[in-house]
Fold:
Amino acid sequence: MKVLVIGSGGREHALAWRLAQCARVQGVFVAPGNGGTALEPAMKNLPLTRPAELAEFAAAEKIALTVVGPEAPLAAGAVDLFRERGLPIFGPTRAAAELESSKAFAKAFMQRHGIPTARHATFTDAAAARAHVGLRGAPIVVKADGLAAGKGVVVAMSVAEAHAAIDDMLGANTLGVAHNDAGARVVIEEFMPGEEASFIVVSDGRTVLPLATSQDHKRIGDGDTGPNTGGMGAYSPAPVVTPNVHARVMQEIIRPTLAGMAAEGRPFTGFLYAGLMIDAEGRPRTVEFNCRLGDPEAQVILMRLKSDLFEVLHHAAHGTLDRVELQWDRRTALGVVMASAGYPAKPRSGDTITGLPADTADLKVFHAGTALRGSDAAGGAADRTLVTSGGRVLCVTALADGVRAAQARALGAVRGIHFAGAQWRNDIGHRALHA
Ligand code: AMP
Ligand code: GLY
Structure:
């Protein structure tokens, strides 16, 4: 069977890598893919991004399953289009993907279904939004309603900072948020204290299976300092999700969300990612929903997955997920992201990457912003140079007994990899180490 993975990041490299190892999978197309997927013998990059072209390709090549990595094609209705054409695809429909693509929808949904989250109010008018912040005080959270790849959120520690964020999001939009059809809106939220974790499940619309838990590191710098990024590293499992917290998340957040989506005529098939804030008493609340795997969470989760990913996703796409069980490597997986010079504000491209280690059973380098530059497509991949081509470049992922050993193994490999201006964090997993 041939499968198709849509996307070009580290998450998609990890999905394609696991799928390529599955018993019934003969080859994986990645559209558009990256330098890493171009180098994998079992994968082939496709220079396609438009859903209509992808559907055309899937039909012509008799693709057994298409898996969508990022949110943008989901929000654009790629799953709806494939389904209309009778093409097997795993992911939520456009209506279901609104859990991520519209923060206003997600917040109202959570309110309707009693799903724990921060109190919020939505504004289109800057003066009204500023007045609301004046009333509530800081710390307070200002979010743009739209897709911003994790960058449209300001956790304001002062009222002045919140006012500046409002003015930007409803005015100049320097964060570059892709606004929804309704135009610019901001959501202003109560600040939730606690520790974050990523809780991702796979669902076929009825049955739900939780994936291994994980924790991301959103800030660029060690000690969680500096600007927010798409994620600088992750590890799995996340000890903050104790068995008790796990049961509460399933009971109070995941099950009501899936039941609510089904009841509202938007049954959710796909990966559902609940970003959690867990307070000192172990009470979980929802920071946000994503309608996809996290990146870099996918890299560490898939490193630990022992079950056949193709069978899991195939069953999920066909409504028979109740026939599947998930098995996990009991070791810790930890991934360190290497980002390009200038990330996150102005990532630089074109720096040559050297020193990549060979894959082993417990070490894998997933590529994201990389490209192969070279003579021509006919020349073998080996003759070409690997260069940076985006913000997050690599995710160096290791499996070991415990967080400390996995971190040491990943960082050991990171230190052997070189490109000009590389940035990474040396403290991925710190919450599990200093708890
Ligand atoms: P989001 O894009 O909604 O996940 O927000 C990005 C980051 O901002 C989250 O990962 C949290 O670290 C932080 N954040 C968002 N909303 C809140 C909130 N209500 N309280 C505290 N921190 C938040
Ligand atoms: N790592 C956070 C996300 O994928 O949204």
Summary: The pocket of adenosine monophosphate (ligand 1) is lined by residues 118, 141, 143, 150, 153, 155, 189-192, 196, 218, 275, 287-288 (CB under 6 Å).
